[in-house]
Design a protein that fits this description.
Largest sheet: 14 strands, antiparallel
Shape: elongated
Number of helices: 14
Bound molecules: zinc ion
Helix content: 10-25%
Structural class: alpha+beta
Length: 515
């Protein structure tokens, strides 16, 4: 059977030619006009010059969960004011959030004017300012197209708009219209009775999940200045929630200050080497209050020697570690996404043309740590992982990536996953040993640490993350050091996938902080 495009929706096969229901005979244009009519009429939609929205809600993470494929968890709450121009691609987003997972406030103001934007992050008095990441801008502006009034206006202008087979949402049949814009296909599902948009879906790429349904559900339609607007919004990735919000206010054609959409000259003149790729991945990273800045940027691969035959391939935030064995290599971590890890794999092949990467050992399943693993799978590396993550990596290996084909999609290579448990998995060539210890923590149940007894090196992710040889005191450090003590290893240096290296003593000292 063909892959189902949208997991939460059952697509109906095309209806037979004879006995078409009336609704099926309607053209896409009629349906778009009916949607506009339901919202207050095309003329009323066209008369909206700007919209001010106040909203509040929650964000969720379905990837960086403790258990691989475990339940989605709430990570933040937020409220925002959004001012959008419907006549030009301009907006101002004033965001106030609280990331409960990291115990941090999230405050930023984005202003976008065309293809350049400005961001102010942190408390306005002491905020960091700069040019808005072009990928974040592209993603935001693509979301603008899904703002209900914009969506219907855009659909009404699109030559590519056409009708698809009706589809069921929650057991109810919906007419569906589709159009393409800037490389994305927007599928709009209309309520069969009211003709209001029920949801809009985009087929997106995700490094781990592959071809993904990135869906926005509209609900709670209410009248705002003579036009119906959805006051409930829910974003989902492959059926799992990313963001739920309830609008508090929608107002149209407000008198805006002349400086509302002004991007300062300092931001306009700031150079960038980022390709503007729209991706839900960026918004998920923003929701997590973690980095995304390398997305769309040419990767830098820097080789740093840790010991004889042990190298760290440093990126900006994440690294891969390569251990040279007699006739093969062991790689630890395939982070982020294809665009980061494929160049790492290429660089490894150039340096060791006669030694294949036989094993890839991910530290844990979180999206930024495992997102590039398919590049190693495509190179023929066997994934070594605890039993708890076996199902997860089989899914990653099988996920179709037709939207943005990656190296595994192109190579169509069969992937071997070697799961283990009941103690460490030891990889050896008779001389060097690479010992992989399962070390479940509250951060990740499938966490492993990698120990090189010959070099007394311990490789870890997300718990120690040393900076300039120092370890910041945090509850996770204490949990990690306690778990490490139980393994009773003779550790000289702790090497972080994030940051640099530190001694075990430095990590131990950070547990004395009383936190
Ligand atoms: Zn993690």
């Amino acid at each position: 059977m063909k892959r189902i495009w949208i997991t939460s929706i059952v697509m109906l096969f095309a209806l037979p030619q004879i006995g078409l229901p009336d609704a099926r005979a309607q053209s896409a244009k009629t349906l778009v006009d009916q949607a506009a009519g339901a919202m207050g009429g095309m003329a009323a939609l066209r008369a909206i010059k700007n919209q001010v929205i106040e909203s509040e809600g929650k964000q969720f993470d379905s990837s960086s969960t403790p258990r691989p494929l475990g339940p989605t968890r709430e990570i933040s709450t937020f409220r925002y004011t959004l001012t959008r121009d419907l006549t030009q691609p301009r907006l101002k987003l004033d965001w106030n959030g609280r990331n409960s997972a990291r115990n941090e406030n999230v405050r930023f103001i984005e202003v976008i004017d065309g293809n350049v934007g400005h961001i102010q992050e942190g408390d306005p008095k002491t905020a960091k300012q700069g040019r808005l990441h072009p990928g974040r801008l592209a993603t935001r502006m693509r979301e603008e197209k899904r703002a209900a009034a914009n969506l219907i206006l855009l659909a009404s202008k699109q030559k590519s708009v056409h009708r698809l087979a009706d589809a069921e949402v929650n057991g109810v049949k919906h007419p569906v219209v589709s159009f393409k814009d800037s490389g994305d296909e927007f599928r709009i599902y209309l309520d069969a009775k009211t003709r209001l948009p029920a949801l809009v879906d985009i087929l997106e790429d995700d490094p781990l999940e592959g071809d993904s349904s990135y869906l926005l559900r509209y609900g709670d339609w209410r009248k705002a200045d003579g036009v119906l607007a959805p006051f409930s919004l829910r974003y989902e990735l492959n059926g799992k929630p990313l963001q739920e919000e309830q609008l508090k206010l929608v107002s149209h054609n407000a008198a805006l200050g002349a400086d509302t959409f002004v991007v300062p000259e300092s931001a306009r003149s700031q150079k960038t080497d980022v390709t503007p790729i729209a991706s839900q991945w960026i918004l998920r990273r923003v929701a997590g209050n973690v980095g995304y800045q390398d997305f769309g940027r040419p990767p830098s691969v820097e080789w740093n020697r840790l010991a004889d035959g042990v190298h760290k391939l440093q990126g900006v935030g994440h690294a891969t570690i390569v251990v040279e064995m007699r006739d093969h290599l062991v790689a630890i971590e395939g982070p982020l996404y294809e665009e980061r890890t494929a160049p790492v794999v290429k660089s490894i092949k150039e340096r060791y043309p006669n030694k294949p990467v036989r094993y890839i050992v991910p530290t844990h399943h979180h999206l930024d740590h495992a997102g590039g693993i398919r590049a190693f799978m495509a190179a023929g590396a066997t994934v070594v992982t605890p039993f708890s993550a076996q199902g997860f990596y089989s899914r990653v290996a099988r996920a179709p990536h037709t939207r943005r084909p990656d190296s595994l999609e192109k190579s169509r290579r069969a992937v071997t996953i070697e799961a283990f448990g009941g103690g460490p998995r030891v990889l050896t060539d008779g001389t060097r040993r690479v010992e992989i210890y399962p070390m479940p923590t509250s951060h990740a149940e499938d966490l492993v640490v990698i120990y090189l007894p010959g070099e007394k090196i311990l490789i870890e992710a997300d718990h120690i993350s040393p900076r300039n040889g120092e370890v910041r005191s945090a509850p996770l450090v204490k949990e990690f050091v306690n778990a490490l003590d139980r393994l009773n290893l003779d550790v000289g240096t702790i090497v972080g996938i994030h940051g640099d290296s530190a001694t075990l003593q430095a990590a131990r000292a950070a547990t004395q902080g009383g936190k």
